[in-house]
Amino acid sequence: SKRLKAEKEAARNATATLEDALERAREKAKTWRRAAASAKAADAKFQDRLSSEESAAKDAAAKASARLRAALNESKMASDKVLTLEHRLADAFKNASREREELEDKLSSEERAA
Q1: Ordered per-residue pLDDT tens for the chain, 114 residues
Q2: Structure pTM?
């Protein structure tokens, strides 16, 4: 009877110990689930921010590329204008040279006639 009581008490103590361990395990599991949920939320926030920053970087790159293309186009137009001016100046120089020669010929023929 004493032995039975002692075994019953030992079983009750073992059960209480197991129940305490189970409760601690449940609390740890809750803590881990909260930590996992927090980590998941932080990851989602990070991914959103990363995506937003990638999008902003792509936009900035597209704008820079557009500005570069515009600058290249302006440069080409300016270069074309310079070439046109060079051709006009060359033509004007040829015309002026020809007119000078004509005037010199005319002057020398007038001098010979005089």
Answers
A1: 888 999 999 999 999 999 999 999 999 999 999 999 999 999 999 999 999 999 999 999 999 999 999 999 999 999 999 999 999 999 999 999 999 999 999 999 988 887
A2: 0.49
Cα-based distances in Å from 99 to 81, 89, 92, 95, 106: 26, 15, 10, 6, 10
- What does the alpha-carbon distance between residue 22 and residue 16 come to, in Å, rounded to a whole number? 10
Distances (CA, A) of 71 to 26, 43, 63: 66, 41, 12
As a whole number of angstroms, the distance between CA 14 and CA 22 comes to: 12
